[in-house]
Amino acid sequence: AALPGPAPADWAQAPLDPAVRAVLVGFDEHFSYAKLCQALRYLLRGGPDCLLVGTNRDHRLPLEGGTAIPGTGCLVKAVETAAQREAFIVGKPNRYMFDCVASEFDIDPARTIMVGDRLDTDILMGNSCGLTTLLTLTGVTTLDEVKGHQESDCPTRQSLVPDYYVDSIADLLPALGD
Amino acid sequence: SGMASCRRLSGAGLREVLGSAEGLLFDCDGVLWAGESAVPGAPELLERLRRSGKAALFVSNNSRRSVAELERRFSRLGFRGVRAEHVFSSALCSALFLRQRLLGEAGNGDNGGGRVFVLGGEGLRGEVRGAGLRLAGEGEPLPGAGEPVRAVLVGYDDQFTFAKLAQACGYLRDPQCLLVATDPDPWHPLSDGQRTPGTGSLTAAVETASGRKAVVVGKPNTYMFDCIVERFGVDPSRTLMVGDRLETDILFGKNCGLSTILTLTGVSRLEEAQAYMASDSAAAKDLVPNYYVDSIADLIPGLDE
Predict the structure, then answer these.
(1) Is the pLDDT assigned to residue B1 strictly greater than 90?
(2) A52, A59, B191, B264: which has the highest count of C-beta atoms within 10 A?
(3) For chain B, how far is it from start to end, CA to CA, in angstroms?
(4) Tens of pLDDT, residues B254-287
(5) Could you give the domains of chain A?
(6) Top-confidence residue, B2 or B117
């Protein structure tokens, strides 16, 4: 619904939908201060009875040509900061999506491989969920980054290190029978 | 010295504390006024301070208004004798900070220091221009054809959009481009008890997207106090900080070596100060005020007739 008036004091008078029980923050290229205001109003009205959920925390979405645009994580952070509370994050590296897959299909983590190109989402989730992790180098991560984590003393960085890597997932073909 | 003890300021203690002070620094929102109404007795307090020969200066994290607008606001709400030069807003001090960093001591020759991309309203933009800096426009394609953008300034921006966030991040890919925020406040109270998001929430978005940490000009950081000392030469040991927000005003006072008075007409509740006092954390102790009053009108009896 359109917000009355040009200023936050006006927006704060707009009626709130009594049925709203969750604020969900996803990728929103039309994100604005006015929407942030409304999110804050619902969260304050509902307190712990209003969920705050974020689809993921990615900082940046890479575009072709090496540039990037802000990711959903930025918008989640804005809402969390204003509301002074933490969002439940659905996406990788959190395990919720793995739990969804595992509950729908009979997955044995010990016999499942997670394939991804990002250490802090794909590989971290795979490692946290007890999967074998395989990094492919066709995306954002370089081998040098992995080596840096491998050589560090920090356990958090160690959890970003995959079990295996390939230059591309096409490299998996020879292992599969004709 | 040990932890502050959050004592109610009244009677003989009040006369002693005010008697030995040369001046007071006041936060504005929630201290002098709430919305469009002065706190009852606040204009009289300032008048009595003037007559007692004590200085009153103002230090506000609110980056919406220029100090010229604030001077008019003081007058409109019934406060006499407050001039723009007495008012240190985060908008003004951010502009001064950027002037120092971009134009430097001796100016920057033909380079002119570069441009500033401001996420904020006209009050903030005016202070930046007033400091001799040029602004980058919204919606300019990158890389810009004009002078390089040497700083992104995040302030209170009720017209903040994803597009502006993306534009800011484009400039911040240059590691030489500064990221500055006017203040860290996560939200501000509205007159009906609701809250509106603050600069802190917008800064969090820019920091997350750019991978950079902002330099925050406003309270509780001490830069605004440096600006005050440079202009008026106050002695921290003879100056009191009066504010309503523990995490900004009281911590600012602690960081600048000022004794602090919490007034209860604004954001923070007495219970919160007491909780900080009871906490085991060293950081929490710094948020405990030396004194508190229900309203700054309660300071009036501490001054001579």
Answers:
(1) no
(2) A52
(3) 33
(4) 999 999 999 999 999 999 999 999 999 999 999 9
(5) 20-87 (3.40.50.1000), 107-171 (3.40.50.1000)
(6) B117
- Nearest in space to B97 (alpha carbons), one of B253, B12, B218: B218
B5 is in an annotated binding site: no
Q: Predicted confidence band at A10 (pLDDT cuts at 50, 70, 90)?
A: confident
Q: How far apart are CA B71 and CA B75, in angstroms?
A: 6
The residue with greater pLDDT, B25 or B114, is B25
Cα dihedral value B137, A76, A43, A18, nearest 10: 80
Instruction: Categorize the per-residue pLDDT at B105 as very low, low, confident or very high, splitting at 50, 70 and 90.
Output: low
B60 is in an annotated binding site: yes
A85 has a chain B CB within 8 A of its CB:
no
pLDDT at B276: 98
Structure tokens at A15: 């009626």
Q: Does B108 carry a binding-site annotation?
A: no
Sign of the four-CA dihedral B43, B44, B45, B49: positive
What pLDDT, on a 0 to 100 scale, did the predictor assign at position A7? Answer: 80
Rounded mean pLDDT of B71-86?
A: 97
Q: What is the pLDDT of residue A71?
A: 97
Architecture of domain B7-61+219-302: 3-Layer(aba) Sandwich (3.40)
| Distance separating alpha carbons of residues A139 and B58, to the nearest angstrom | 53
The helix-helix angle for B199-210 and A72-83 (nearest 10°) equals 150
Q: Do domains B7-61+219-302 and B91-216 have the same CATH topology?
A: yes
Distance between B40 CA and the closest CA of chain A, angstroms: 23
Cross-chain residue pair A79–B166, CB shorter than 8 Å: no
What DSSP element (H or E) covers B124?
A: helix B122-130
Average pLDDT over residues B23-36: 96
Segment 61-80 of chain A within 8 Å of chain B by CB: 67-71, 73-75, 77-80
CATH class of B91-216: alpha beta
- Best probe of the A interface among B201, B202, B248, by most A CBs < 10 A, is B201
* Residue A41 CB neighbours (<10 A): 22
